[in-house]
Amino acid sequence: MIEKKVLKKGQVVIPKDIRDLLGLHEGDDVVIDLEGNTIKIKKDKSVSSRLRAIAKEHDKEISVGDIKEHLEGRYEA
46-61: per-residue pLDDT in tens? Predict the structure, then answer.
């Protein structure tokens, strides 16, 4: 078990070993959930999150609106 302090703005640092195991990088999305008195944090594996990660790898910006617009265009034809 790893203990961390909650910082001034409610932030908690995820230890590097855990970030490495999950493949978490700066800018990645995470999902935070509450079960009783337990906080769960997991890597976001949603389609929009994956597409943003791909765009980031290619030094491009992409928004959820861009994704929606692209998908609507594909299925309208």
Answer: 766 677 767 777 777 7
Q: pTM for the full model?
A: 0.55
Contact 30, 41 (CB under 8 A): yes
- Which DSSP state fits 64? H
* Cβ–Cβ under 8 Å, residues 55 and 62: yes
Among 71, 72, 51, which Cα is nearest to 62's? Answer: 51
Phi-psi region of 72 (alpha: psi -120 to 50; beta: other; left: phi over 0): alpha
Here the tokens at position 75 are 């299925």
Q: Specify the amino acid at residue 30.
A: V
Question: What CATH topology corresponds to 7-43?
Answer: Pemi-like Protein 1; Chain: D (2.10.260)
Q: CATH 2.10.260: which residues of the chain?
A: 7-43
